[in-house]
Design a protein that fits this description.
Layout lengths: L3 E15 L9 H12 L13 E15 L3 E5 L6 H8 L7 E6 L3 E4 L12 H11 L4 H15 L14 H14 L4 E4 L8 H18 L2 E5 L3 H7 L2 E6 L2 E7 H9 L8 E3 L11 E9 L8 E3 L4 E9 L7 E8 L4 E6 L13 E9 L7 E11 L4 E15 L32
Parallel strand pairs: 3-7, 3-8, 5-6, 6-7, 12-18
Antiparallel strand pairs: 1-2, 1-4, 8-9, 10-11, 11-13, 13-16, 14-15, 14-17, 17-18
Length: 427
């Protein structure tokens, strides 16, 4: 078992918040009126008891270990403590309590322009950053051409970086951080500033240095597809505490659907069953071709949405439907039971089981959420519609048999169908 390169023990960070009363613009008339009022009135009693200062714990008793070569996503909602944690790991901010042990050189990309001197040129800042990382001038020079080519800033290399756009800042900063061979690379959401093509380039580079060179990566993002593609493990923060850590798929599931999370199957009993006096929902689960319940599927396999329900009254035409959303909240598709006889024929009383099959090689890798309902729009009637019922994940096998082919870098798209191609040489 490898030794951890990052060890965090009982880490806490406190900030002191000052509460100051906001004064509006004061005119001479206001001053005169206020003094006159003081003469003819008793002292006002304070209406609230707000302290002048208050302690705010951005992090509280954080513990985790990260091994060499791990790619770890740090996820959580705004204000969860992600950026504070990365600043402590990057030695920008000191912790209030606890201890952090880091074995190796750290390069961090937290904010646009971090580590750059605005008056120096791009060329000079490359050498400055390398020196900060403890590299010799010869080592930096050996990587110089690669950095400039990756950042695509050849024309502006001898321009002071204070004249750079935010996108140019990020391109150069990432190129420096990735190519100057740190053992640990820490990247915040700052990559979102760059264009889509450069983001994909960065993700491919991080994947390369982790897999091929054994470097450790900590990556903060709100994009669960990126976390799924890049990170093998994840840590979920909420309110400055670690809520969950482990496989990125499991942690993302908890994040997407709240602190408690939801699994790939859900069951209701008794009065808790959604529905009305016509139909009640019993369960929904994600299944494979062998009807086994699973939470993670290969991109190459068919996925079933099984819904079990009970009809309580005869002679009602019931339409079954599902909504599928990705981790970014995008409605990938809606579907309902138009291909079945019972779409036009009334149900009889009894218990039923339906399965809607999602074809293999339709969805990309990532985390997905299912909502389900029963309705009849021709009658303007919705019997029930339950949102965010179950969650499941898809992983790519990287065997060349999906639409990704042999590409290992980030592959974008809301869907990823494996299309049939015909290529013929012209005579």
């Amino acid at each position: 078992m490898s030794e951890p390169v990052i060890k965090v023990e009982n880490l806490s960070k406190r900030f002191v918040i000052s509460h100051e009363k906001q004064e509006r613009y004061t005119s001479l008339r206001d001053v005169v009126a206020r003094r006159a009022k003081k003469i003819f009135s008793f002292p006002a009693q304070p209406t609230t008891n707000i302290p002048a200062k208050e302690d705010f714990w951005a992090l509280k008793d954080i513990n985790f270990e990260i091994n060499k070569g791990d790619r770890v996503g740090i996820i959580g909602r705004n204000g969860a403590g992600k950026s504070t944690l990365l600043k402590i790991l990057s030695r920008i901010t000191e912790p209030t309590k606890g201890r952090v042990t880091i074995d190796g050189r750290v390069a961090s990309l937290l904010e646009v322009g971090t580590g750059f001197h605005p008056e120096l040129t791009g060329r000079e800042n490359i050498f400055l950053n390398g020196a900060i990382l403890g590299m010799s001038r010869a080592e930096i020079r050996s990587k110089f051409d690669e950095i400039v080519a990756f950042a695509e800033i050849e024309k502006f290399l001898d321009t002071p970086v204070k004249h750079y756009s935010s996108g140019m800042y990020v391109r150069l900063a990432f190129a420096v951080a990735a190519h100057l061979e740190p053992e640990i690379l820490i990247v915040d959401e700052v990559l979102a500033v760059g264009d889509a093509q450069f983001q994909k380039k960065c993700l491919g580079k991080m994947e390369e240095v982790s897999k091929n060179e054994g470097r450790t990566i900590l990556f903060v993002s709100h994009n669960m597809n990126v976390i799924s593609a890049l990170c093998s493990n994840a840590i979920l923060l909420s309110g400055g505490r670690v809520i969950e850590s482990g496989r990125s798929i499991d942690v993302m599931n908890s994040y997407v659907l709240g602190s408690g999370g939801k699994s790939s199957e859900r069951e209701w009993v008794g009065k808790m069953r959604p529905g009305n006096n016509i139909i009640k929902l019993n369960s929904v689960r994600m299944i494979d071709a062998s009807r086994y319940s699973k939470d993670t599927f290969s991109i190459n396999e068919e996925i079933g949405i099984e819904m079990n329900y009970e009809v309580l009254e005869d002679n009602n035409v019931l339409w079954l439907g599902h909504n599928l959303y990705n981790s970014e909240g995008v409605n990938v598709f809606d579907t309902h039971s138009v291909s079945t006889d019972l779409y036009v024929k009334p149900h009889k009383k009894g218990k039923y089981s339906s399965v809607a099959w999602i074809p293999a090689n339709l969805l990309p890798e990532g985390t997905f959420i299912i909502g389900s309902g029963v309705f009849n729009h021709s009658e303007h009637r919705i019997h029930f519609h339950e949102r965010d019922i179950v969650v499941f994940s898809i992983v790519d096998t990287y065997d060349g048999k999906s639409a990704r082919g042999l590409t290992t870098s980030h592959f974008s798209g809301v869907v990823r169908p494996l299309l049939r191609w015909n290529i013929n040489a012209k005579k």
